[in-house]
User: Fold this.
Amino acid sequence: MPTNEQAPVPVIDTSVASVARVYDALLGGKDNYEVDRVVYRSVLEASPEAPRTATAIRQWLVRVVRWLAGPAGMDQFLDLGSGLPTVENTHEVAQRVNPDARVVYVDNDPVVSAHGRALLEENDRTHFVEMDLTEPERVLAHPAVTENLDLERPFVLMQCNTLHHLMDDENPYQIMKTYVDALPSGSYAALCHFWDPAEENAEFSAFARDMEQRLTGSTMGSGRFRTRQEIRSYLDGLELVEPGLVMLHEWWPEGPRLEPLTNMDQVFLSGVAQKP
Ligand SMILES: C[S@@+](CC[C@H](N)C(=O)[O-])C[C@H]1O[C@@H](n2cnc3c(N)ncnc32)[C@H](O)[C@@H]1O
Assistant:
């Protein structure tokens, strides 16, 4: 099993909610504390079916990775903000399609690191590094990344449900631009982001604004719902593949939808784009 010599001793702050642990609660996991469940319950108050959306996000991720590892021929994945291991993780999906696919996970949450490392580092093609994704130059130069991925060859940059946890003063646009600039031609970026459909749907825009206040006003302290234009700007310099920047269920669904959309389903935009 690969090792990561840089692994710090985990320091888990249970006085404030963490994004990874709240998301774990929404996915029905056990790696969360009461402080996280306070945020979870606030989300449920506004959107009782939010756990279904969390599941829909993971189903979207599976469809995206399966396509990238299969028809798109990608065999290297840099998964930023991997989250706690769940039912289907990027490496499981990619390596089922292509056993040689290599995946490096990056997350800065010590619980993800402590509980996730063993499971995510299942084989010599799967690695985890505890780092802050807001430091793209450091991430892209880290030995766990450079020794396991060939960044001179096309790779997949996964930025799924991460940038909305960066507030505007953290300059998520510039951070993403640095990653996109580093992509060799032929690479892909996969993006999923909280959406404020202000120009398209007043009802769901109001819902997004309320949810943003619940999240940013909680001890978790982040969760920005951005406009379509802002989200599209994270993919500047890339060409969106069909069907473009769409709601989760619209990105190549498995088949007819059997359940109605939740309000939470309607405030996410997702897409995959390629570097020309
Ligand atoms: C909502 S989860 C998404 C997990 C997974 N990407 C998905 O879409 O299902 C966001 C993850 O990003 C991580 N994250 C948030 N900010 C981060 C940062 N600055 N550096 C590294 N990871 C971060 C959190 O710890 C969390 O695990």
Remarks:
- The longest strand covers residues 188-194.
- Residues 19-20, 23, 57-58, 61, 81-83, 106-109, 112, 132-134, 160-162, 165, 192 surround S-adenosylmethionine (CB under 6 Å).
- Strands lie at 76-80, 102-107, 126-130, 156-160, 188-194, 239-240, 268-274.
